[in-house]
Amino acid sequence: MRKRNMLDHLNLKAPVWNAGMGLGLAGANLVAAISRVGGFGVLGTGALPATEVKNMIDSTRQLTEKPIGANIIIPMSDGSDLAACFDLGVEVVVLFWGDIQPYIKDAQKKGIYIVSQCGSVEEAVIAADAGANAVIIQGTEAGGHVKADQPLHHVLKSCVHELGSIPTIAAGGISDGSDILKVLASGAQAVSMGTRFLATTESCAAKAYKEKLISADAANTVITKLFDGGWPNANHRVVINGTYKRWADSNSPPPGQRSGEGTEIGTFSIGNSLIPLTRYTTYPPTTAFDGDIEEMPLYAGTSVSQVSEIVSVAELMRTLSEEHKRALLEKA
Q1: pLDDT (0 to 100) of residue 192
Q2: Are 139 and 153 in contact (CB under 8 A)?
Q3: Hey, is 276 helix, strand or coil?
Q4: pTM exceeds 0.85 for this model
Q5: Structural domains of the chain in order of their starting residue, each with its CATH number
Q6: What's the rounded Cα separation, in Å, for the pair 271 and 49?
Q7: Beta pairing class for 236-239 and 144-145
Q8: Which of 312, 303, 288 lies closest to 207, judged by CA?
Q9: Are 64 and 85 in contact (CB under 8 A)?
């Protein structure tokens, strides 16, 4: 008999997770809405102070009794955000961009599952050996920060094979139910989707940001290291905007030689604090941002080509399910 794994214990109706898009892009309303319709919701707690992490978790618990997750970005964490997740007992913590080993024992003591988001099969194996309960394997099609150096279909089957009984969750460029069927057929046990959930009524992306997603397609996205304020030397996929165009038209100068460095371009509200943001910030334009989104990183993956309107989470999940069923019939 097969040993029960993390996904068995979570008992989800749909093998669909949202990416834990940081600084609150994936907030309580989004996570609760996904959980209510049978998926798995992951809070975007990355880069937020512990007090805000606690508020997000509390708010989500008021909206749903289902299990929830929280995403922590290791290079942007001081440890207090993760401690808040542990203290409040989220069922799953997703760790990204760093060594997960130091966190495994505490998670096990508290009965919390650790999922490591990885950019290669080698990294996935290291995470599994360290004690990860599951791995999210990312392809270069993903939006936001991209650790991967190969497309998802180049690494997925190898990752599934190497991890064996440890669940593999696929991420990067998954845009519809047909894509979900393909990655499940390749051995993934679930998918993690960011861009499609970003373009929902429940996400905390600014209205103008969502409008940009509607008008963009995959050809309008690029992997760059431009928006590095707070997280240097890290690849990320964004929709090309005014700031990117000006930089590229200036022959892509390196940090320290870019136009307008240090120029204040807006503010970001966290709790009772108003944080000034400067050009090339890592912060995304959430509803807490006040300023011009042409100055901001508009994180989006290649699946942005499928975004034609802003819909509710319930409608998106229903569409994905219908597409998946249709793809199954076509394959039969």
Answers
A1: 98
A2: yes
A3: strand
A4: yes
A5: 6-203+311-331 (3.20.20.70), 207-303 (no CATH)
A6: 9
A7: antiparallel
A8: 288
A9: no
